[in-house]
Amino acid sequence: QAKRLFAAHQIPVPRGALIARPAQARAAFAALGGGPCTLKAQIHAGGRGKAGGVLPVATAEQAEQTALDLLSRRCITVQTSPEGLPVNRLLLEERLNIARELYLAVMIDRSSGRPVILASREGGVELDRHRERPVRCAGSVGEGGQLDPEPKRGEGAGFWCCHWRRPPGVD
């Protein structure tokens, strides 16, 4: 979903195809140019890569076989139950050389009930290791939804965080 939004606003994203059957992986691999690709299990949980749910493929045959393997199992990650989640869809994406990974999320602060924007220079698959470090958010989004021009840095983890304040008269 986010990649579609990015592409709609001319933000470059890797080319890819949604896969529901192994034969689709073979065809999509060819349609993407036959170069190195990555198959990614589409489940609602983080940690897919470490759980074997994100795998490189180098040929159309390997794409089809890997898709069959992934679609035939459940993906168990640190964010799923011990039974894991069924893999019903895959994303086949062209593989890119990544120079830098960043992290950006908008979530609800349960104590205030307001959206919080969290950003980190240390994005990517190892981001969860920072959860053990404290993150204190001191920045804010100003009245009317304007971002604080200098959000405060969260202590110890390389995070920046901004809280949303409702404009006066808005419930």
**What is the number of beta strands?**
11
Q: H/E series, N to C?
A: HEHEEHEEEEEEEE
> What share of residues are in beta strands?
25-35%
Q: In oligomeric terms, what are we looking at?
A: single chain
> How far apart are the termini?
28 Å
Mean pLDDT: 78
SS field, number of helical segments: 3
Rg, please?
A: 19 Å
Question: Which class of secondary structure composition applies to the elements?
Answer: alpha+beta
Low-confidence stretches: 134-144, 146-157, 163-167
Q: Give the biggest sheet.
A: 5 strands, mixed
| Helix content bin | 10-25%
Give the overall form: globular
Description:
- With 171 residues, the chain is an alpha+beta fold.
- Helices cover 17% and strands 27% of the residues.
- It has three helices and eleven strands.
- The protein has helices at residues 2-8, 22-31, 60-71, and strands spanning 16-19, 37-41, 54-57, 74-75, 85-86, 90-94, 103-109, 114-120, 139-141, 153-154, 159-164.
- The strands form three sheets. Strands 7, 8, 9, 10 and 11 form a five-stranded mixed beta sheet that branches.
- β10 and β11 (159-164) form a beta hairpin.
- α2 (22-31) runs antiparallel to α3.
- The protein is globular and about 50 Å long.
